């Protein structure tokens, strides 16, 4: 059996090595390391794949979120609502810009922001909502967009974990996640579903003015060379990464299918284990399985993690400390939060290996190891 990894980038690379190596060599030969042709090609292909008007490439998913907030002219003191149960980047940029993070509860079944809790958290200072499509399924965007338009709020979708995911509205229309809100952001960090071989990210919007502003912000606030109208950043997606992403974008749907196949294998294996809740998929979304995350009841999670590690099966806790308990916000004078579902999940979730290269032998071995621990 091949060694089991949380994410097996090496085996995936081996399968596409010839194409990738050629594309990277072409960039080296062209010496257009910044803003070479593959960057524009990537933007065009992503714009077609996602059906969104503008794609603004940038250096990583955290910059993408930060620049989205900068483009919306959010000011210190403005409140930005985010789920507490997410990767820290979502809220970190709120704090970095001296905006006020407001943490809300997630739906314990979907792991995504709970629209009812979200609406309750709105105050006259609220300016934006940042839903996160956690683990690869969409947050309840129809409800979120209704609440946003009722209260006149911006919506920034953190789509770092769900690129390629389809959201279905109640009238049957489908849209890709990241293209529904005011702005969508994503990350091409190597382990993400569409991963580069280094850091990279992108921003999506259908708004021409915002797109123009985002492009300026990503390039030192520059309107024409050496004329700087805004305070911006230096945040680019480099040509080598774009050349790699162009190849991998063509395979994204195939990769999503492979992840779904692995998830289906796990689901079936865990069907009759009452201690395990397998991922729930809400009716308005499909799942691209960035992570395959179980909720455990009455299982010593740390002992399971250790038991699996001894059997050479990695497992991870995403995320052990929710945002509202992170020390980085201690100077923000945040209220005493009571987020029961978030705390409950934090203590019970465990993610199993999930990537495009898992074979049935590996999946069977992982599932048996989990079941062995729980039923022994
Ligand atoms: C990975 C990730 C980010 C940040 O992306 P980077 O490219 O690592 O900066 C932001 N939000 C979520 C939910 C993520 O998973």
Short description:
Helices cover 39% and strands 15% of the residues. It has 376 residues and is an alpha/beta fold.
Could you walk me through the main structural features you see in this protein, from its secondary elements to its overall organization?
The chain contains twelve helices and 14 strands. With 376 residues, the protein is of the alpha/beta class. It folds into two domains: 9-104 and 111-249, 3-Layer(aba) Sandwich (Aspartate Aminotransferase, domain 2); 252-375, Aspartate Aminotransferase, domain 1 (Alpha-Beta Complex), CATH 3.90.1150.10. It is globular and about 70 Å long. The site of pyridoxal-5'-phosphate (PLP) has 15 residues, from helix 3 and helix 4.
C-alpha Rg, in Å?
21 Å
Q: What strand line-up does the widest sheet have?
A: 1-9-8-5-4-2-3
E-strand count: 14
CATH class of the largest domain: Alpha Beta
Topology of this structure?
Blueprint: H1 9-30, H2 37-50, E1 54-58, H3 61-71, E2 79-83, H4 89-96, E3 100-104, H5 115-120, E4 126-129, H6 141-151, E5 154-158, E6 166-168, E7 174-176, E8 183-187, E9 201-205, H7 208-218, E10 222-224, E11 227-228, H8 239-250, H9 252-269, E12 276-277, E13 292-296, H10 301-310, H11 340-348, E14 349-352, H12 360-375
Parallel strand pairs: 2-3, 2-4, 4-5, 5-8
Antiparallel strand pairs: 1-9, 6-7, 8-9, 10-11, 12-13, 13-14
Bound molecules: pyridoxal-5'-phosphate (PLP).
């Amino acid at each position: 059996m091949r060694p089991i990894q949380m994410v097996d980038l090496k085996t995936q690379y081996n399968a596409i090595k010839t194409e990738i190596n050629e594309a990277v060599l072409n960039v080296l030969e062209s010496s257009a390391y910044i803003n070479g042709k593959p960057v524009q090609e990537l933007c065009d292909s992503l714009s077609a794949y996602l059906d969104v008007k503008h794609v603004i490439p940038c250096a990583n998913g955290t910059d993408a979120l930060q620049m989205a907030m900068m483009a919306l002219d959010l000011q210190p003191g403005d409140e930005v609502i985010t789920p507490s149960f997410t990767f820290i980047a979502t809220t970190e940029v709120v704090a970095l810009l001296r905006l006020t993070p407001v943490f809300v509860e997630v739906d314990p079944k979907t792991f995504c922001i709970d629209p009812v809790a979200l609406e309750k958290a709105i105050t006259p200072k609220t300016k934006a909502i940042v839903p996160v499509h956690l683990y690869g399924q969409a947050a309840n965007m129809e409800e979120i967009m209704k609440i946003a338009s009722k209260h006149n709020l911006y919506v920034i979708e953190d789509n770092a974990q769900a690129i390629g995911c389809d959201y279905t509205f109640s009238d049957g229309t489908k849209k890709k996640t990241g293209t529904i809100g005011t702005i969508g952001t994503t990350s091409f960090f190597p382990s993400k579903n569409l991963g580069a071989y280094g850091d990279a990210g992108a921003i999506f919007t259908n708004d021409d003015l915002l797109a123009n502003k985002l492009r300026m912000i990503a390039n030192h606030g520059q309107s024409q060379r050496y004329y700087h109208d805004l305070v911006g950043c230096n945040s680019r997606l480099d040509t080598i990464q774009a050349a790699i992403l162009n190849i991998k974008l063509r395979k994204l749907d195939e990769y999503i299918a492979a992840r779904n196949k692995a998830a289906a294998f796990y689901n079936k294996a865990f069907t009759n284990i009452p201690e395990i809740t397998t991922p729930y998929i809400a009716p308005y979304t499909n799942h691209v399985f960035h992570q395959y995350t179980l909720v455990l009841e009455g299982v010593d999670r740390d002992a399971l993690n250790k038991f699996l590690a001894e059997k050479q099966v990695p497992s991870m806790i995403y995320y052990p400390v929710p945002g509202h308990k992170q020390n980085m916000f201690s100077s923000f004078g945040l209220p005493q939060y009571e987020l029961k579902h978030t705390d409950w999940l934090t203590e019970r979730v465990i993610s199993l290996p999930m990537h495009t290269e898992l074979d049935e032998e590996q999946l069977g071995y992982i599932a048996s190891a989990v079941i062995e621990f729980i039923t022994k």
